[in-house]
Amino acid sequence: MPTSSNQKLKPLYLLKLLLDKTDSQNTLTIAEILNELAGYGIKAERKSIYSDIEILRGFGIDIETRRSKTTGYYVASRRFELPELKLLVDAVQSSRFITSKKSEELIRKLSSLTSGEQAKQLRRQVYVAGRAKAVNETVYYSIDQIHTAINEDKKIVFKYFDYDINKKRKY
Known about the structure:
By secondary structure, the protein is mainly α.
């Protein structure tokens, strides 16, 4: 078998393919896996794919097979199940203190925790009547600092202010 510079990365690319493209409803056959790996510049033989799948299983990745006309492989269990991710996406979208931009970023990150097909189901809009999203993204980081201070048993000091007629802060 010809070797390429990416050959040692083959099991990692195989894992990436299985995580990105498979779930219980969407499988990849060995032929499809070989074709996808070729897109990364990796040439492989069927036997080496079987071996790599066994290595990934030994590592703890739950790879199952589905037999029909062909045998398809898929990742059967993940860190988060789809209903859990939907719940998290709904919480992010309905949260008032998270800006729209940060919400989109968080949802994109949550979507990366499932297959591409299931990620499409996470792209939905939750409407909460009368709920405005924050405009100031620093609120997100301020809340994180408050939680950190609480966890470290530190005191928190706030300076309250209002704006006067000249739009200057008045503490």
